[in-house]
Amino acid sequence: KFPKSDSMEKLSVELLNTLKNLKQDDFKQFKWFLKQDDILKGQKGIPEDEVIGKIKLNILATSWMPCFVSDLNPRHLRFVTEGIGEKEAELEKLREFAVDVTLDPDTAHRDLVLSSDGKQVYDTNVTKDLPMTSQRFDTCASVVGKETFSSGKFYIEVQVEGKTDWSVGIAHKSINRKGKICLSPNNGFWTIWLKDKVYEALAKLNPERVGVFVDYDGGLVSFYNVDTTDLLYSFTGCCFAERLLPFFSPCTNIGGTNSAPLIISPVSLFD
């Protein structure tokens, strides 16, 4: 682990600025630069491919979500230098804020099927005869939770194993649920997602369980790979103007290749 110092902070900021302007085609050149300065060799206890994977994931995240680039912060860069024990301890603390969330069937797109306990959802490509209310998503294969949050901290975990496309996060209660929706903070959504074409080159980073931590008063939304305890992404400086709802999209069935359900998982402490 690097010692905490002003020089390390400066390096993190400089590297962050480089990442913001880095294109996917530049990635090989950037990796070569890291090797030349032996930066990767200094990451004791963390494999080189893991460091590269995290940097590449952030690069791809900026290409998926151009309006989120300003939310990247030096913590993402510092995080890869932490030991496994420290990461696990950090996530363990956040899991203490676990809440029970149930899917709201009155908001689910008519192609979606919810389990009887309200913990699982998947798409069938078969439209059910249900009333089209103002609360129901009519185009995007999405659903929100019944519970709302307007203060404090909360945490949930979602199993995404076996899926090629999905999106999870939080949203303002007043979000638009009609027509095509852009999942951006400007529209009241703070989410991450997986798309098959994007993740083909990053299959080893594909999480099976995603942890979502929200600090309403602190304006923070963070996403974790629960099984590796890695931080996937953080939105900082968020201005929540109203109640928040957990948001889930199993995305479309895609001919059966994306038929696995999203599952709201019970949260238990690490062994």
Automatic annotation (TrEMBL):
Residues 81-269 form the B30.2/SPRY domain. Pfam families: PRY, PYRIN, SPRY. SUPFAM superfamilies: Concanavalin A-like lectins/glucanases (SSF49899), DEATH domain (SSF47986). It comes from the Eukaryota. Coiled coil: none annotated. InterPro entries: B30.2/SPRY, B30.2/SPRY_sf, Butyrophylin_SPRY, ConA-like_dom_sf, DAPIN, DEATH-like_dom_sf, PRY, SPRY_dom. This is B30.2/SPRY domain-containing protein. It comes from Xiphophorus couchianus (Monterrey platyfish).
